[in-house]
Structures are given as structure tokens and as C-alpha cells.
Amino acid sequence: MTELHLWLRHEARTTERRTPVVPDDARRLVGAGVELTVEDSPQRVFPAREYEAVGARIASPGSWVSAPRDAVVLGLKELPDEPDRLTHRHILFGHAYKQQPGAAALLRRFAAGGGTLLDLEYLVDDDGRRLAAFGFWAGYLGAALAVLQHRGRLVAPLVPTAKDELDETLRPAPGDGDFTALVVGALGRSGRGAQAAFAAAGVDPTGWDLAETLDLDRAALLAHDVMVNCVLATSPVPPFVREEDLDDPVRRLRTLSDVTCDVGSPLNVLPVYDRTTEWTDPVRRLRKEPPLDLIAIDNLPSLLPRESSVDFSAALTPQLLDFGSGAPWARCLELFHRVSRELGL
Fold first, then answer.
1. Which residues of 8-21 are buried (b: 16+ CB within 10 A; e: fewer)?
2. 116, 134, 187, 193: which could form a disulfide with 301 (CB 3.0–4.6 Å)?
3. Which residue in the list 10, 88, 90, 95 is annotated as catalytic?
């Protein structure tokens, strides 16, 4: 491994409690010679003192902007709007390569400062499979919230919890009626997570994947009570649910949970809403009659911050140890430069 100064930043989003590197894996990094700086963060599920105990240096929140130029800044969600010139190498989920809202502006900030985006969504192996992902827990939470909403037991605002506590709320209670559920994208990480949550809730869902979506039976889709979408399209496909489907009088679908939250992208398979929902207001009613409720939260795994962080960190840490020479990072860099060139940056 080449010399690496890794700077773990505080997440600006107040509901983001996850971390890409947990203290146990921070110990591995420091032991391998990584210089690790960790910003203090009031909401991170692991306190700064646990990182300090394994050899990390603690810095104030947001101080990455004045970090040494060679530091690699590591985070998860979106960067603050300032500074307008990004000079460092940044590892995060950038959501910048599929024409999402704000994507071009983010890439212009990198171009202005000479920095680099290494997007975790595109950190993949030689076969294109993602090497570190929160997908299982996103699917688990997406299905769990759908179950609770459909049974009339979802309480807002949402608060982070632990899996054992969440599973207790999912157990069927006397008076809970049966309902049908559909997981689209059932064979992927998110789909497997969604199916696991339905199992915890005593529900046996239908699972669709590529074969079923290539020859979509929209009437069969709309005949389910609950649908969880776990498909992240990489090329244009016909939408799974269209605006006209919402007004279909025979539509049985009542609860729609979009784990992917690709809102604003031309690749969105559920172009029936224009903004995500929030922890404070997790459900939006799309239609009053017949009723249809939408759940579309774009940081679902942060509701189980400890479990999801531990899994993600275990997958990411070997890649960080190979940062200077690993082919996955080279692919991330090449993609950043290619997209930037296409935008004329």
C-alpha cells in the first residue's frame, strides 16, 4: 500500500449517523500505516473517542476544507455547498453520473478546484459488482417501513434503532390482516434485504428480477398490496409504475416503497413522484382514492446505523488498504475523468 492520509469527515446531513469506517477497522488501517484523521461528529453512531483510542487524530467537524492537499477525504452522503472549489480527492456516494439534480454543479466544483470524485457507487470488481454497499440494509428498511405503514403502525418522526428492536415491531399482531407484497429486484443485495424484512414480518413476498421486468406484467404488479422497488437501472427501461397507473380504479397497490430513490434521473423506474420523503414525514399520499402511499427515503440504512456501518466498513477497508494501486480505484478515477470530459469540464 502506498502512503495514505485518510480524512474521515463529519456528515453534514443531520439524519446521517452511519460511517464508512468503524473503529475496529480504523485500528486495521492505522496498524497498516495509514495516517487517519477523524472529524468529531455529534450524530455519528461511533463517538470520536473510539477512533482516538485506536490511533486516529481527532479534528473539528468540517475541517477537511483546510486538510493537507494530499489527504483523501472520506464520507458517505452529499458535501456541503461550500467551498465552491473542491481541491481534494473525495470518496463518497456522489450521485453525479446519471444526470441527477445537482450533478453537474458538483462536478464543476471539482473542476474548479482540481479535485477528484471517487464515487463509491462505482467502486466495482472486474465483473462490475459493487465492492462495498449498503444495499441489504436499504432493502431491509424499505420493506420494514412499508410493512409498518401498511399495518398502520409507522410512527413519525423516524428514529435510529437496532435490528432486534425493529424486528420486534415487525412481528404480526392480533388483528393484522394478510396482504400481498412484491419485491422488484429480488436477487440483488437490496432485494435480499427486503425479503428478509418481510420474512421477519411473517409475509411471503413475490420476487421479481430481470426476467420479470424485461417482460413486465403491469397488471400483476398493480394487483399486489405492497411493492418495494430495489432496481437501480443503468440503462433506460420502461417505467414500472406510470402516472396513469395511479388512477387505475382496479389498482390494488396501496403502499409503494422506493429503495432506489432515483428521483430526477432519466433512468428512474418510478417516475410518479418528484421529491423524496424525509424522516420527519416519511410517507406521502400520492392518491386519495384508491389510496396509495409512498415511502422514498434516500438514507434508509442510517435508521440501523451500527449494523449497516459495520457491514459496509468490513467491505470497504480492504479496498482502502489497496488504495494506491487497486484496479477498482483506477476505474473510479477513469470514470470521473470521462464524465467530466463529456460535460466539457
1. bbbbeeebbbbbbb
2. 134
3. 95
